[in-house]
Amino acid sequence: xxxxxxxxxxxxxxxxxxxxxxxxxxxxxxxxxxxxxxxxxxxxxxxxxxxxxxxxxxxxxxxxxxxxxxxxxxxxxxxxxxxxxxxxxxxxxxxxxxxxxxxxxxxxxxxxxxxxxxxxxxxxxxxxxxxxxxxxxxxxxxxxxxxxxxxxxxxxxxxxxxxxxxxxxxxxxxxxxxxxxxxxxxxxxxxxxxxxxxxxxxxxxxxxxxxxxxxxxxxxxxxxxxxxxxxxxxxxxxxxxxxxxxxxxxxxxxxxxxxxxxxxxxxxxxxxxxxxxxxxxxxxxxxxxxxxxxxxxxxxxxxxxxxxxxxxxxxxxxxxxxxxxxxxxxxxxxxxxxxxxxxxxxxxxxxxxxxxxxxxxxxxxxxxxxxxxxxxxxxxxxxxxxxxxxxxxxxxxxxxxxxxxxxxxxxxxxxxxxxxxxxxxxxxxxxxxxxxxxxxxxxxxxxxxxxxxxxxxxxxxxxxxxxxxxxxxxxxxxxxxxxxxxxxxxxxxxxxxxxxxxxxxxxxxxxxxxxxxxxxxxxxxxxxxxxxxxxxxxxxxxxxxxxxxxxxxxxxxxxxxxxxxxxxxxxxxxxxxxxxxxxxxxxxxxxxxxxxxxxxxxxxxxxxxxxxxxxxxxxxxxxxxxxxxxxxxxxxxxxxxxxxxxxxxxxxxxxxxxxxxxxxxxxxxxxxxxxxxxxxxxxxxxxxxxxxxxxxxxxxxxxxxxxxxxxxxxxxxxxxxxxxxxxxxxxxxxxxxxxxxxxxxxxxxxxxxxxxxxxxxxxxxxxxxxxxxxxxxxxxxxxxxxxxxxxxxxxxxxxxxxxxxxxxxxxxxxxxxxxxxxxxxxxxxxxxxxxxxxxxxxxxxxxxxxxxxxxxxxxxxxxxxxxxxxxxxxxxxxxxxxxxxxxxxxxxxxxxxxxxxxxxxxxxxxxxxxxxxxxxxxxxxxxxxxxxxxxxxx
Length: 938
Description:
By secondary structure, this protein is an alpha+beta fold. The chain has five domains: 1-231, Trypsin-like serine proteases (Thrombin, subunit H, Beta Barrel); 243-405, 3-Layer(aba) Sandwich (Rossmann fold); 411-498; 499-622; 791-921, Tetratricopeptide repeat domain (Serine Threonine Protein Phosphatase 5, Tetratricopeptide repeat, Alpha Horseshoe), CATH 1.25.40.10. The chain contains 33 helices and 25 strands. The strands form six sheets. It has a seven-stranded antiparallel sheet with strand order 11-10-14-15-16-13-12. A six-stranded antiparallel barrel has the order 1-2-3-8-7-6. Strand 14 and strand 15 form a beta hairpin.
């Protein structure tokens, strides 16, 4: 009996009308006559759940759900039992209710609690009264059993029957709910109680179904046979309950309850309204599967489960041994101790038929087939099996088993663990502002956090100091997370734990590819890379060349297929070394960061150059020509290129910078990620200067892209300084008319244009256009760019008619060559509209600009710099057309977005703010926003 589940049932009036007991989050067991007053149902029913000394009292509205009120008033001889349905669930601790059925002839001790009238205080407020005594099984009354209490209450002077209000109290024997108190005894002066046997209710239609579906998780309708000797050993022939065989591992220091994860497990157990016997906790090494199972085992013992068996299940013989020990401890008939398998089978037979509650934990299943004969079943519904495994194998599900995927700590759990672990060891001074970064760097892996905390305590390192060691490439995992830091007794060094199943993978690998696939994945982004990479020719060629031969005497390896690569991925997925789920594309393949690091630290150094090149070639092959229609894919490819560049060290720079490094940087520029692209190209420039030298073409390219980032960020002076150097270097090394020299000259002109050095920009662009028309032709992509930029310069110089003529021709060429929705076609269309606006052709400008804005929002997103430019230009046209309110509304959005994305002092932000102030104040001028046609740096 749990006092926190006591219920005071009210049906109107100031005093309590009856008692009850919470048997499910929304289900209350009480007496029928409490809610059936005479020949009428109570007009209003409410419930107060809880005990004043055990937490807060919870009030709920209630209604009768059994018997069914729609069937009318029950017959006079109906069982005096009812179930109430609460309008909202009541969270309550503890496990499911267990039901009992009395047998034998010896009186059985009982207990209960209710709200009888004699316990009311002077204010007539109902108080809890503990009911106890003996239930003589052979003594019966009109309602069922007689409850003999050691103290009988005296009759009340006001004529109220002393037991009034106790009706509906749940009666327990040996922790099992066996009856419901329903009436006092007139012949005994209203002092003795009678109870209805609850097993009679469980046999009636509807009652058992409600209990099964809406009881607390794990509730069944099975009843256990109880006698006077059920609670203790009788003559040494019965086990002393409860029994623990294992033992259950202790919970780790600063153990985290993992509430969300436990809700998943509980939900899987109660799936579909019925109890699912077996949950398989599946996850990689070190995620805390065993600790979670241990927490459930500890809770089971606290909740009165009779038997907990903890069996290490790496090998089937370990399970057999534990089962045999459990059978011996239970003193099951026929158990001799001489034949472990026979004793283990005896235990399984007992588990299948007993009405006692039990939990069996099978920890760390490694060979599912070997356990086929040793899975417990429970035909009475009183048992539960919890298994842990690294495997995600279909052989572990089905047959009443369901898998629950176990992942790392949540950020809050990881932070709470680290803080509690250090504080509990009186080393809280090691906590600093680097805690969030450290838990993320450790991948929130419980095992790694445990080892790291112990190392920090032993060495007295702050979180920041440990983080610096962790991110140092030269420090290996066994140094940072050594065996000496295994203070919780996990029994394995971290690398061994993470890669424990690798040998099994090799043995089970039909393709000879799994190890290669794992090594390649370890060099990519832990957050996920596209599954589509494994169908690219570069990766398939690499796998073909380096795969492990599966047939002796094979001279050459056959060409690897995409299906074989997928088979290898799924094998690694099954053994929890990575996750492969094609529904998550373009991040379908993920690997924990520490697992990846452990793999990388065990790769022979000579294998790295070719491995890195194959991964880089695959990323480049998968990259779309234009990012914008594939933003999620482009984001994933950028992240994977960055991870590969970090892990491959300098291998992607020999003999020169790999093209994927440049494609990733251009992708940042195309996405309008100004700060990120500037930092990226600064690092690229430094690497190229260090590894290839100042005069290498790659170095010139990285500098040019850095200048473009500065240009895009409004840092025009910085862009011009770099571009003048790049142009001088290219003229010196390549000559005046080399295509790359022309590109450098065009970029310098773009920066002159941005700095309002219009005449210089025009002079350069006219020369670039002439050179490109002569060398590349009128319709070449780079010629069109140069011509469009020249037109923008004419626009800035007020040469509007010439600008319009050129812009219209560029637009026609781009629509023909690139299509209507290519980003550069949109730029050309926007330039035409801006020129129309300057020429006073406002309505034409608006029509085009509205379409450009819609297309850019769809292709680039709401916050891309080019989308903001389109919005600002449309605002200018609205202003020019006299649509002031619409214009101000649009420009307010632009200013807010530019301040957040570009900063207060970016030229575009400054221009938009000045225009907005003028428009709001109606101060002079024509309301121009100062936006220009877009120049495209190359």
